[in-house]
Amino acid sequence: MLSGSSPSRYPVHTSTHIPPDTSFVQPFYYSAGPALYVSEENASLYSADATLDVMNGQPVCTVTNSAQNPAGESYGAQLIAFDTRAEAVDAVESGQCIGLLWVSHVDFSDPTLVEVAHDAAKNDPIGIAVSFDLEIGAYSYLTSLSAEWMAKGASSPILTWEKRYQGSATQNEQLGEVVNAITYFAPVPPPSSSLSSSTPSIRALLMTALAAIVVLAW
Amino acid sequence: MTTTLPASLVTLMMIASAMAEGPKPAFLVGSETSADMASYLCNLTFTSTPSPPNWIEGLTFGPFLSNCTAPFLATSEAELVELVKNGTACFGVGVSLSDESSSEVDIVRPFYQSVDGAPVGIAVQKGKRETNLELVSSVQAGLVSALWAGNSSVVTQIDAGTPKSLAFPVAAVTGFLTRNGLNLSYTIGPTPIAEGKLETPAIANPVNVTIAVYKGNALPLADITGDSIDSWSGMEVEMIREICAQPGPLNCEDIIVVDTIDDRLNVLNDGRASISIGSIVVTQSRLDSTS
Fold first, then answer.
1. What is the pLDDT of residues B109-151, one digit of tens each?
2. Which of A197, B7, B215, B262 has its C-alpha lying 20 to 30 A from B82's C-alpha?
3. B225 touches chain A (CB under 8 A)
4. Which of B173, B23, B291 is nearest to A79 (CA)?
5. In A, which residues are within 8 Å of B238 by CB distance?
6. Assigned CATH class of B8-186
7. CB-CB under 8 Å, A138 with B193
8. Does the beta-carbon distance from B178 to A141 stay under 8 Å?
């Protein structure tokens, strides 16, 4: 258990780099960007249209190696990094910093932290990562499933899940629009090929593609 | 005596004809951005590019158009438009509205790029929506997917791999989605898909997979590894339930709960899992641009 940390009622997405042998299923199912969370009693200090500029010159708690840290630095924050999110939250509660730099749309409760500013222009996609060794048929299935989660307008599962687990977190400002677009312009489902054990993996197909390119180059 | 085929049947025949050979893309020779966009839309069978496209880490395989045939390579924008206009190519990537010939084709919205202030998009033959709505819809869905999520969007990453990326005002393009939302009025006659039209692939021999999920994405956080997934909750957990639904094409052998954010992708690298749910895509170029 994350001692002293509030269980997030919404996915905790932080940073990562993409390993070379990894692919992402698309469409991505969500997005989030850097956001500042402050204690409930200090939330009233910030206007409704506050931006991350409020971090300029201020001590802001974060987690070591978080992908949001470069964004925090670009806003002039004096970052204080902790090993875990729980420690960072505790530091916010004890007043060591004005707030926590974290990804947007996270519901922090017990103790409650409130999102007071978010840079939606820096939102990053969040998705399902798969290994290149995964059979292409399985990849296609996940692609189709991801599209289905978004392709039913207001009743799309992805919107239902967000509502269900959002708690007090802010709503993703892009999700509804993307769901709307995918609903109207749904991708063609992958061919109804069987997922046999002989189905080539993504890696095998990539190797074939590169071989073809080499041959063409000759 | 002549027999007139019902219009609907003629339309169906045209659609069948258009789809039989798979979509044929065209793009400008030497335009890496166009080649990458075509690659993104067209999936793996698109392998005859004149040079390797900028295979983007983690975003190599576009799912939106299956079975694309070898692309046509145009040496000028006029030729590109002509390939689309006369039906040689199903769609053309990299057509600028600044080119006079662009009025002879339809540009699928949203645009994905602008050069010298002129929007650049993917062209289809006029009337294509009526004869091959599936193609146009798929291209549009691909564009939406490529543009969504701001600075780390596929379009941004394509731009990052392009030598002349300074000419590509990505922020303005992606801002179309991230700040102002999709303006659906710019699309070519949006038509909602019929309920239940999407279908998942047929199930034959289930593929064994191990799925990883980050501890912080599944509730309760405490002692989660000792409990059944039935007692967990969270968006990612709902997804795992859907993916592993029985009967399904994937046989979920195991579900791994990882403790750290880095382990979400480490498990794919070290072979402990083949699917990992809940990873945010942050590229080095994105980090560089904000640091």
1. 777 776 776 778 899 998 887 777 777 777 877 777 777 665 5
2. B7
3. no
4. B291
5. 157, 161
6. alpha beta
7. no
8. no
